[in-house]
Design a protein that fits this description.
This protein is mainly α and 319 residues long. It has a domain at 242-319. It has 13 helices and no strands. The radius of gyration is 24 Å and the shape is elongated.
């Protein structure tokens, strides 16, 4: 029981250590809730537009190669969506550091077999980085989706007063926080240095993988080829995006109770087992030596895993 608690605390500590290292290395400007987006923060330091663009593009594209490696493709995909400033090499070093640290702590404080400790350490090192990246990616994409309707409205207002689309993109970059402020700022800078804005917008949509942004990209691409009133098209698109966002929030509110019930029912067996072992550690001693104990544990574990999958499918409503 004490070993399980120790491992749980160590895994929670791993997430805190990774987040702490990230903030120490890159500062508060990397946080999504910063009032000034990261691009403007770099410009405030006296760097030129080209230097800032190169810095941000390097961070954005550094995980592209890791997507081609089978074992690193999952981490690379999450890191790209989260736009993590850590390089792939730095992420690997963090995994190694965490694994070695956990191995030393667990080896010194428990009597578990070293091979099992090694497997646990590697699993916690890789798993900790993956969970941290996954949480970062989810938070960034969710905030991007929330900001997008406001960004479209800013673009529409700019177009209606006579600004070209590239200038409207720059207004969004100046007025909005991260993540959309920096991403649209990079679009504006790339257009300034000669890149086709539609292609840059398509690359952003592929990288961020937000459906509403794809709608915006398609609308702008069609208008650029066939002409028409882009402000009116984007105004209608903005209303649709905002309506979809309200619907998502409503569905989330309706299913929140069911999700809590699912989480509770999934976690209750494990919590009950830990409570039983804490109150009476020898509770299962009489049956541990029987032939049916290991098969029963495997069956119970599979049923609990199946329960998690079914519960998740029941409350995961597609809109």
């Amino acid at each position: 029981m004490s070993t399980a608690i120790l491992l749980g605390l160590l895994f929670f500590g791993v997430l805190l250590i990774i987040e702490g290292l990230y903030l120490v290395v890159f500062g508060k400007s990397i946080k999504l809730n910063s009032r000034m987006n990261r691009r403007l923060a770099l410009l405030e330091q006296g760097k030129g537009h080209e230097e800032v663009l190169n810095t941000l593009r390097k961070e954005r594209e550094q995980h592209a190669k890791s997507k081609k490696v089978p074992l690193l493709s999952i981490l690379g995909n999450k890191a790209s969506k989260a736009n993590i400033a850590f390089s792939p090499k730095a992420l690997m070093m963090i995994m190694g550091f965490v694994a070695i640290s956990i191995f030393g702590i667990v080896f010194a404080m428990t009597d578990i077999d070293p091979l099992i400790i090694l497997l646990i350490s590697v699993g916690m090192g890789v798993g900790g980085v993956f969970i941290w990246l996954n949480n970062k990616a989810k938070a960034r994409l969710a905030l991007f989706e929330e900001q997008l309707p406001d960004a479209v409205e800013l673009i529409v207002r700019s177009l209606r007063v006579g600004h070209p689309f590239s200038s409207a993109i720059n207004v969004v970059a100046q007025e909005m926080a991260d993540p959309i402020g920096t991403e649209f700022g990079m679009l504006a800078d790339e257009a300034t240095y000669g890149r086709d804005l539609i292609l840059a917008l398509e690359d952003l949509a592929d990288r961020v993988d937000v459906q509403d942004l794809r709608f915006l990209t398609v609308a702008v691409g069609i208008q650029s080829q066939s002409g028409g009133n882009l402000a009116e098209v984007l105004d209608g698109l903005g209303k649709v995006i905002r309506s979809r966002f309200r619907l998502f929030r409503r569905v989330k509110a309706i299913t929140s109770e069911a999700k809590f019930s699912g989480y509770f029912l999934s976690a209750f067996p494990a919590a009950a087992l830990m409570a039983i072992l804490a109150i009476k550690p020898d509770y299962y001693d009489d049956v541990m030596e029987t032939a049916a104990f290991i098969p029963a544990c495997i069956i119970v574990g599979l049923m609990m895993a199946l329960n998690v999958v079914i519960m998740r499918a029941m409350v995961d409503i597609k809109v």
